[in-house]
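This week, think about what follows.
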Amino acid sequence: MSKRLALVLVLPLVLAGALPASAAAKASDVIQQAIDGFVRPAYARLHEHADSLTKAMRRLCDAPSQDHLDAARAEFSGTVD
């Protein structure tokens, strides 16, 4: 009987210790999915927009014109949005 009592008393403690580890594993999965599903793609889009902005700014500096200014402004707007 004392072994059963010990098991009944220890089992909740063991399970309570396992729950935070499980929650931590789930949290790390959520974080990894956020990184892979949102953060990395967002940085990739930012990189593409920044490259386009750089090219537009170079065209504007090399040959100033209203068309190049408008293009640079459009690229800037696309980069910061």
About this structure: The chain has one domain: 2-80. The chain has two helices and no strands. The mean pLDDT is 84. Residues 2-80 form one domain.
